[in-house]
Structures are given as structure tokens and as C-alpha cells.
Specification:
It is a single chain. By secondary structure, the chain is mainly α. A three-stranded antiparallel beta sheet has the order 1-3-2. It is built from ten helices and six strands; from the N terminus they run ααβααββαβααββααα. Helix 2 crosses helix 4 and helix 5 crosses helix 7.
């Protein structure tokens, strides 16, 4: 049975599909995947000789202006609902838990200051960060472990994950929002700590000035 599967797999990987067929394959892979899929992963699933980058680019163009979009998330691709139609799915969203203010502030600091060590997070917040707060963010897969610092003790660093970017519809950390958007996304309390904002490099807008007087 295994030999038969291997034979079929090799045969499937050997034929040269047309550009249209390649687009259909990319579409099928992205539609069936819950999580973003990298170009390498897509290439591994498609027959040899496919121009995966071009097939993805054509698929992206084909979905422009439609109810679904093909978007880039970090170094991967995903099929997601068009932002202007997200209200239609509001009832389908389930909040499994509500993050504490400490967790929200910790997450925001990591997102804007990554890679960040625990000591650096505590320095910006002005208070200690409990292991429970970090564990919660790790369990949500919104943060992960980065490289260790080349300093005494070799402390680990924390970075945001692809799942974090996907949840907030960000292509990369360069697309992180400003203060108002942070509040709207639930990443900061309605009255944020000014020291934290300065620490993560987010400037209050004129509309927010009254909050810090």
C-alpha cells in the first residue's frame, strides 16, 4: 500500500500543470488551511516545475475586490474575509478569554520592542511581569521565544508570532497600528500608561492629549 501511495505521489509531482491549474492548486491549499501557509510549504505540495511565486501573485490579483482576499502574513499566505465585510461574521467570533491589562501591556511592549527580554519588558512597564502573564501569551501562541541575548546570563527574548499577525490582520510588525488602533484592537486600556507608550515608541495623537494632562 505504501509503495502504491509513493508511486502515485511521484506521478502527481511529475506532470506540468498549466498556469490556470497552478492557480487552482494555490487556491485549494489556502482555502483548506486554517493557518497561513509559506511559499515553501505550498511549493512542497505542488508538482515539480510549478512557478509558485507567480501562481500566488495571480491568485492575489484574482481575489482583489472580492469577499475573500489572499493576504501575506509575515512570510506566509492566507485566505481571509475582506476587512469591509468582517461585520458579517461578527456573531461567529468566540472570545475564549479576556486578557488582563498586564498581559495586554506586555503583549504591546513585545510587539513594538521585539526582541525583548523579560527585564526589558519590566523596565518599560515599571513593574514586574509574572510568569503567569507570559505563560498565557505563550499558550495563546501570540508570542514566542526569540534568540538569547549575548549578555551575561544569556536571557531569552520574546517576539510576536505569525498567529499574532494573522489575528490582527497584519502583514508584518511594520504594520503595527498607532494608539487609537491599539485601543480599538484591545491591546491597550482606554487610558494607557504614558510611560509604556513612550517605551514602545507610540506617540499619542492630539485627540489623546487630554488623557495625559
Amino acid at each position: 500500500m505504501t509503495a502504491m501511495v509513493d508511486k502515485v505521489s511521484k506521478e502527481q509531482k511529475s506532470y506540468a500543470p498549466s498556469e490556470f491549474e497552478q492557480e487552482r492548486m494555490v487556491e485549494a491549499i489556502l482555502f483548506a488551511s486554517t493557518n497561513p501557509v509559506s511559499e515553501r510549504e505550498i511549493s512542497d505540495r505542488m508538482p515539480e516545475g510549478c512557478d509558485v511565486a507567480s501562481a500566488i501573485a495571480r491568485t492575489v490579483r484574482n481575489y482583489e475586490g472580492r469577499g475573500l482576499r489572499v493576504i501575506k502574513v509575515d512570510d506566509a499566505w492566507a485566505m481571509r474575509t475582506a476587512p469591509d465585510l468582517s461585520f458579517l461574521l461578527h456573531k461567529e467570533r468566540i472570545r475564549t478569554r479576556k486578557l488582563s491589562r498586564a498581559a495586554l501591556e506586555t503583549l504591546a511592549i513585545i510587539a513594538y520592542h521585539q526582541p525583548a527580554t523579560r527585564a526589558e519588558i519590566e523596565e518599560i512597564r515599571g513593574v514586574g511581569v509574572s510568569q503567569g502573564t507570559l505563560d498565557q501569551l505563550l499558550q495563546l501562541d501570540w508570542i514566542g521565544l526569540g534568540r538569547r541575548r549575548k549578555t551575561p546570563g544569556r536571557p531569552v527574548t520574546f517576539v510576536v508570532t505569525r498567529n499574532f499577525l494573522d489575528h490582527f490582520s497584519l502583514a508584518s510588525v511594520r504594520d503595527l497600528p498607532g494608539l487609537k488602533e491599539l485601543r480599538d484592537a484591545g491591546l491597550l486600556a482606554s487610558t494607557p500608561n504614558k510611560d509604556i507608550l513612550e517605551g514602545i515608541g507610540v506617540e499619542p495623537s492630539e485627540d489623546d492629549a487630554d488623557e495625559f494632562e
